[in-house]
Amino acid sequence: MITIHNLKKAYNGTTVLDIEHLEIEKGQAIGLVGNNGAGKTTLFSLLLDLIQANGGHIISNGVQVNESEDWKPFTSAFVDESFLIGYLTPEEYFYFIGELRGLNKADVDALVASYSDFFNGEAVGQNKYLRDLSKGNQKKVGIIASLIGNPKVIILDEPFANLDPSTQIRLKKIIKELADDPEVTILVSSHDLIHVTEVTKRIVLLEKGRVVKDMTKDSGTFAQLEQYFLGISEAHAPVPVETVVEKEIITDKVVE
Fold this sequence. Notes:
- It is globular and about 45 Å long.
- The strands form two sheets. It has a six-stranded mixed β-sheet, sandwiched between helices. A four-stranded antiparallel β-sheet has the order 2-1-4-5.
- The longest helix is centred in the last third of the chain and has 15 residues, at 165-179.
- The chain is of the alpha/beta class.
- The protein is 38% helix and 24% strand.
- The chain has a single domain (2-217), classed as Rossmann fold.
């Protein structure tokens, strides 16, 4: 479904993404994890042709995304609030997206109504502009808007951020249902290892722009990820003063 080949992105001479090869099969639910600066959002931006690569390319369902717009009808995403149109109400925004995807207002209303528990009486029906909603409610609108028109590729960047625990639980249910559809390929990034391992079936770990782990999820996946990130934090932890002093004392005794 998606093939990434020799993909490189650099800013001011600093490489932020360097993926030699990555295959994502149709129907897979992929969790993208990594520390800040790992390249997750950069990869999503390249998948959506929002920025230009310095080398390589991405093929999505037979379409090279930087050379044709034919990938757009089957691809949807919510990366951040910049995807929204602040002077519209949520309903107006939903209708706008629906029109782009060939749906009438009745179809859009039916889809939005099916996610009423996700909105939980917030965001929709409040007669507020998107710019006046909280970050969490803006995210709710953006996520549901990304599902309009039954897209076959769905990209969600940090979807759990700014959401309260109840909404996170409801969102996990939505993503799991999408992941069970063999026609839908979904990519989710998150700093929350528990959430991302729960809702996806394969984990791709990025570090400084490179793929360092690519794992099919099993019962030990979370523990492996936890150990990896614990190892990074320990490797960069400052050496305790006591340890430095003890080493100096031992060295002095050896010299004497």
